[in-house]
Specification:
de novo design (two linked rop proteins); 2 domains; 8-stranded mixed sheet; 14% strand
Length: 361
């Protein structure tokens, strides 16, 4: 599985080219300046240097943030801290070369986002939830001036984490909904001690047990949005967790086992490690458990399936099948969209937030 892709890397910078081609729009869609993406990717010619280049860029923004703090400019500092967090995150997100350095960058991303929250949203809360003998970590943010807002779970994909979600969170917050960005099993901070599991409704249930007990959230109005593999997680949770009243997916696989062998080798290596697999065959067996066959028919709540026809990572036919199997699901196929439609976020992110607000009203 991975070996075939490695043989394709005959040119030293091909791994960089693959990463930029597949995920460049994601960087900018989540808040990295396009000029910075070009500057960083053009400044290196070896994949081994990817992490250091992005972390150096994160340090640059962290320095700008500290300078703004010293001058009393909190908003400028907070915005710089967000850019720093994204830089550290995208440095390590599919970089599996040295896991000690990978974790160090991840910890810098977590710290940078906490600093951003201190300036831009002091009400943001880090919440740790006991699950399976470990702690899941999530970030709760609540809209200003709403006593008991509805709550939207934001579920990351294979290589994403809560540190990537500041911009999407703001879209829902602006419409009066609280957000909870969750690092579930095998994801972000939670992934240090856990591995990916197919029954994602279990960690969602554990999170909702904690969140629905709060008197500053409306536990009767819960929605979920999952992106990429997180869309599988969101759909799976909606099928088995009765507290979810509406669900949206974007770029989600129907059958991850069918998708993984053709994904970039970066993603294959991330899945091998995050799933706890011993080798490539073991990883493929784990991926085959991530299937919505026989699951989507259980969904009894409104559902939107967003997908890009030009997705290079997940075939668009998987979205068609997902919308077909889920009773009453809407399919929003964006003809020009890439993976998770990150090249046209303005075409779906506000619209999904509006749709979610209508469902949870």
């Amino acid at each position: 599985m991975v070996t075939r892709h490695r043989r394709e890397l005959d040119v030293p910078d091909e791994a960089i080219q693959i990463a930029a081609a597949n995920w460049g729009p994601r960087f900018t869609g989540q808040g990295v300046d396009p000029a910075d993406v070009a500057r960083i990717t053009e400044s290196i010619d070896r994949w081994d240097d990817w992490l250091d280049a992005w972390c150096a860029h994160g340090d640059l923004h962290a320095g700008l943030a500290r300078a703004a703090e010293e001058e009393g400019h909190g908003r400028t500092a907070g915005e710089a801290w967000v850019r720093a967090a994204l830089s550290y995150h995208f440095g390590k997100f599919v970089w599996m070369v040295d896991m000690a350095r990978h974790r160090a960058a991840a910890e810098k991303a977590v710290a940078a986002l906490a600093s951003a929250h201190r300036h831009l949203d002091p009400s943001a809360e880090r919440i740790e939830i006991d699950f399976g003998g470990a702690s899941m970590v999530g970030c709760l943010r609540r809209p200003a001036g709403v006593r008991r807002p509805p709550l939207v779970l934001l579920l990351p994909g294979l290589d994403s984490a809560k540190e990537e979600f500041f911009a999407p969170e703001n879209v829902f917050l602006a419409r009066g909904m609280a957000t909870f960005s969750l690092d579930g099993p095998g994801q972000g901070e939670t992934g240090y001690l856990t591995t990916i599991r197919h029954d994602y409704e279990a960690p969602v249930a554990a999170a909702l047990d904690v969140l629905c007990a709060r008197d500053d959230l409306d536990g009767g109005r819960i929605g979920a949005l999952g992106v990429s593999l997180g869309g599988y997680y969101a759909a799976r949770a909606a099928a088995f967790e009765p507290r979810i009243r509406a669900v949206a997916t974007c770029g989600a696989p129907y059958d991850f086992g069918a998708v993984l062998p053709d994904m970039p080798w970066h993603s294959q290596m991330v899945f091998l490690r995050s799933s706890g697999a011993h080798d490539e065959d073991d990883a493929l067996a784990a991926a085959r458990r991530l299937s919505l066959d026989g699951v989507l028919e259980r969904i009894r709540v409104p559902m939107v399936v967003v997908f890009g026809r030009l997705d290079r990572l997940v075939p668009w036919a998987q979205a068609v099948r997902m919308a077909k199997d889920a009773p009453g699901a809407e399919l929003w196929m964006l003809e020009e969209g890439n993976h998770v439609c990150m090249n046209v976020v303005y075409r779906w992110r506000p619209q999904v937030a509006d749709w979610m607000a209508d469902q949870l009203r």
